[in-house]
Write a structure and sequence with these properties.
Blueprint: H1 2-24, H2 27-35, H3 42-49, H4 55-59, H5 62-67, H6 70-75
Helix pairs in contact: 2-3
Length: 81
């Protein structure tokens, strides 16, 4: 049961990252307003923002896991506990 809950929690965080990425809408918003505010350097933010419409691919990468990590989701009030 513990493993099942951990896997479900991981999947929910992944889906939350996808929803946040979709809300940012344009690559300009993704780079300047959001990714760079969350601590991602400019070149990496640019590459990530302009990867196209592959939302699932982007949200599984290390950049999104760094920018929108578990602690930030908890601060947003989206914790699993």
């Amino acid at each position: 049961m513990k493993t099942l809950c951990r896997d479900m929690d991981k999947h929910i965080r992944y889906r939350l990252r996808m929803c946040i990425w979709k809300q940012w809408k344009t690559p300009q918003n993704r780079i300047i307003k959001n990714l760079m505010k969350l601590g991602v350097d400019k070149d990496t933010a640019w590459i990530t923002a302009y990867t196209g419409s592959r939302i699932a691919y982007v949200c599984q990468q290390r950049v999104m896991n760094f920018a929108i990590n578990k602690e930030r989701l908890t601060r947003f009030g989206l914790s699993s506990k």
